[in-house]
Design brief:
Elements (H helix, E strand, L loop, with lengths): L3 E5 H8 L5 E10 L3 E9 L8 H5 L7 E8 L5 H11 L7 E5 L8 E6 L2 E4 L3 E3 L1 H7 E14 L3 H15 L4 E5 L5 E3 L3 E3 L9 H5 L3 E5 L5 E6 L4 H5 L7 E9 L28 E14 L7 H26 L11 E6 L8 E6 L7 H13 L18 H10 L20 E4 L21 H15 L10 H10 L16 H12 L3 E6 L9 H10 L4 E5 L2 E10 L6 E6 L9 H6 L3 E4 L10 E6 L6
Parallel strand pairs: 1-3, 1-8, 4-5, 9-15
Antiparallel strand pairs: 2-3, 2-4, 5-6, 6-7, 9-16, 10-11, 10-15, 11-12, 13-14, 17-18, 19-22, 20-25, 21-22, 21-25, 22-23, 23-24
């Protein structure tokens, strides 16, 4: 019986954007009683060469190669088909999609049955159902790799390490619980049995709850809102955090060891000394929530092995680049998880710690990824700053050192615009406002804070690695370019949208568009232009009028009536960083036309994305 076919709505939108004749590989998840869900694809890296083996290691475990996709009248498909078929492990019937260029009209899906393509219908899985039916595991552990600095030695030692991982000695613990997963006892918990499912495990994970003071502590269990506490920012999937232990009782006891041989002497050739490379590993897997817990152990082991293969690929690529170096240095690799919104799933990359994002070899690596996933090379997706920010890590960082609130607009009340369409900031940002970092800027620092919020957007989207400028650095730059006198440095003088554009150019090499509005009463006339800005640029907008500055991070606009409301991030807030207070009191919220001063003119600074990957 042929599998039932479903295709993620995210994947369909990506397929629709391909406008060049090519072929590529499809990746999906098998779940339930024989359903195949297609989630991702990559196009060929070069003519006649498919890179599916390396690509698959970047996906979470359980997201596997399952077929081929053909765009237009690509002539390479037949040649690639046999190669791909021989590598498909999760089904006996690989899937073939045939797509027209730039459209989903005429999309045809077929399973390969006994050497012939058999057409099948498919269902679209929309985002809400995908988020509801599937979840991810996120696992952290560490190893040391002892190896000679050669590709052959690394491949051999990594093989040994993967065998060690799969020998049954690892035990997994679901974070914040007493749920353990081992090879010989399965998933241990008083309420679980052989029929228990992943969704039952999720129900046992405790979630943080806010105390009256606004601090978070771990309290009661269970949550349909697990993603809000342990998931990734901007992603609605539940994420299960996993800790790793080693079962010592499975290791041979000292008393069982073979006796030492009698003392003897021999002459040996001195071997080159091995180096030790720390491997801080973080791996992910995707699971249907209806999957039985009995499968969890094997899935977690596979996720570790995929990350180890990523490390191996990263280390050997670097050694190949250093072929002419007499004594190549092995750098420590690290896993970074990314969640491109176009994908609807996570993707992982391994980067070497001492190589910056602007290193030519790292740039070339990212450029290949953009091409393989049919992504534009005009904006960054896989820079370190683009990595996922998981809620649990943010909470831990907040307790260790001060960090501004992230994405304070998530969860705000609706605007109330009838038949309106929301156009929002695209990406992550930090909320900067009065009195943060012990700076007494109340009454004059609102535009400085708006600039800091905008700079945080460029930092968090991977466009820069520069730290957020301080008030003093902003003033010093304006004096340096002869816009302000020396007396301005260290003063409490305010700045406007023009000064902001100068600072963005000086600090980040970012151009800005300045828009003038004669009065607050006329701001509704630029709603369509703001909507276009958020669609094409997606950056926060600074608006200044009189002596006040605000940050616009969205607009809700009805084309038919012209009614508009603006999503405002207010830098004049002076209280503690408590999200509930900020949203309830309207420091981050939708504002109508009555919010603006009808007698004051306004200037908007609209930063433009630089071309970067």
């Amino acid at each position: 019986m042929l599998p039932k076919l479903r295709i993620s709505s995210f994947l369909l939108k990506r397929l629709e954007r391909v406008k060049l004749q090519c072929s590529g590989c499809l990746y999906g998840v098998f779940y339930g009683d024989g359903t195949l869900l297609l989630l991702s694809f990559n196009v060929e890296a070069s003519v006649g060469q498919l890179s599916y083996e390396h690509i698959q290691h970047k996906f979470p475990a359980e997201l596997d190669l399952c077929g081929l996709v053909k765009f237009g009248d690509c002539s390479d498909t037949d040649a690639h088909l046999s190669e791909v078929i021989s590598s498909v492990d999760i089904t006996d019937n690989p899937i073939v999609l045939q797509c027209q260029l730039g459209t989903l009209v005429g999309l045809r899906a077929s399973f390969l049955v006994h050497g012939k393509l058999e057409h099948v219908p498919y269902e679209t899985m929309e985002a809400p159902q995908l988020f509801n039916d599937f979840c991810f595991t996120r696992l952290k552990c560490g190893f040391y790799l002892h190896t000679l600095p050669t590709p052959e030695a690394i491949a051999k030692e990594m093989h040994v390490l993967r065998k060690r991982v799969a020998d049954g000695s690892l035990v997994f613990n679901v974070s914040q619980t007493k749920i353990y997963v081992s090879s010989h006892c399965g998933t241990q918990h008083k309420s679980f049995n052989s029929e228990s499912l992943i969704e039952h495990l999720i129900a046992e994970v405790p979630i943080p709850a806010e105390t009256p003071s606004g601090n978070k502590k771990k309290t009661v269990t269970s949550s349909p809102e697990l993603d809000k506490h342990y998931g990734a920012v901007g992603c609605a999937f539940d994420v299960i955090n996993i800790d790793v232990l080693r079962c010592r009782t499975r290791e041979p006891a000292a008393g069982d060891a073979a006796p030492h041989p009698a003392l003897s002497m021999c002459i040996t050739h001195e071997e080159p000394s091995k180096v030790q490379v720390p491997l801080e590993l973080e791996s992910m897997a995707i699971l249907c929530k209806k999957t039985k817990l009995l499968r969890l152990y094997d899935v977690l082991i596979e996720s570790i092995c995929r990350s180890l293969r990523l490390f191996e690929q990263c280390l050997t690529e670097r050694l190949t680049e250093q072929e002419t170096v007499t004594k190549p240095k092995l750098l420590a690799p690290r896993i970074y998880h990314f969640y491109p919104k176009e994908f609807g799933h996570f993707l992982s990359c391994a980067y070497l710690e001492e190589l910056s994002d602007d290193e030519p070899s790292v740039q070339e690596k990212r450029k290949r990824l953009h091409r393989q996933f049919a992504l534009p090379v005009t904006r960054p997706y896989f820079r370190r700053a683009n990595q996922c920010r998981f809620q649990g890590d943010i909470l831990a960082a907040d307790t260790a050192s001060w960090t501004p609130l992230l994405n304070t607009h998530l969860g705000v009340r609706p605007s109330g615009v009838t038949d309106g369409k929301e156009y929002l900031v695209n990406g992550n940002y930090h909320y900067y406002h009065y009195l943060q970092q012990q700076v007494q800027d109340k009454g004059w620092g609102c535009a400085y804070r708006s600039l800091q919020t905008i700079c945080s957007w460029f930092l968090l989207q991977g466009y820069t690695e520069r730290a957020i400028p301080t008030h003093l650095e902003i003033q010093e730059h304006l004096h340096k370019i002869n816009d302000k006198p020396a007396s301005f440095v260290g003063s409490s003088q305010w700045i406007g949208s023009t000064e902001l554009s100068m600072c963005l150019q000086g600090f980040l090499n970012v151009d800005s568009k300045i828009l003038h509005v004669a009065s607050g009463a006329e701001l509704s006339t630029i709603a369509s232009e703001l909507a276009m800005h958020f669609q094409t640029q997606g950056t926060p907008v600074m608006i200044g009028g009189g002596v006040l500055a605000h940050t616009i991070i969205g607009v809700d606009y009805c084309v038919q009536t012209g009614q508009a409301k603006f999503l405002i991030l207010d830098p004049h807030y002076t209280g503690p960083d408590e999200l509930s207070t900020i949203q309830i009191k309207g420091w981050c919220g939708w504002k109508g036309m009555d919010f603006w001063d009808k007698k004051s003119y306004y200037n908007l600074c609209m930063p433009q994305r630089p071309i970067l990957y």
